[in-house]
Amino acid sequence: MLHPNEKRILAIDLRSRSFGFVVFEGPTRLLDWGVKSFRQGVNKPTIPASEKLAALMDDFSPSTIVLAKRDSDSKKRALMRNALVSEATKRRISIRLLSRNCVKFAFPDCNRNKYAIAAALTKQLPELAPKLPSGRKIWKSEDYRMSIFDAAALGVAYFQSRPAAQKNVSSEAKLVSRK
What we know:
The protein has five helices and five strands. By secondary structure, it is α/β, with parallel strands linked by helices. It has one domain: Ribonuclease H-like superfamily/Ribonuclease H (Nucleotidyltransferase, domain 5, 2-Layer Sandwich), CATH 3.30.420.10. The protein has a five-stranded mixed sheet, sandwiched between helices. Strand 2 (18-25) and strand 3 (30-37) form a beta hairpin.
């Protein structure tokens, strides 16, 4: 059951051929996580990515969707982001964009690289430990499961940034009430 002070969020890491997602209910409880693929060509899945995103929103009814803020997007990622925003707008779900620096700030002792952050996440969220890929060698491509950890890092950063935002709102309310 969702407590009044906790929010259900859907953190999504968009990639060119897939997206990783993590559904949080409060800062420490995970409901679901995974990677959904939407390749092109012969191995093209029968369900388009926009329908997969819509199904996630319908299944979990998040109050907020958290995405990574990017300076530039590829054409595929921009199309995915637009489809996501469109589906979220239909369902009146707010979208929050977090920068890479915000994510690194949420993991101050282990923000050297993505794998260090992923290892820290497994200590904080032990349910993800079986999905943790081994460290990447420079000649290997990134493991597809890293998308789950990138989404989880976005979710954790969102919950850690919320108290600061709430303090700012409450201090602004105090200033307005004093005037």
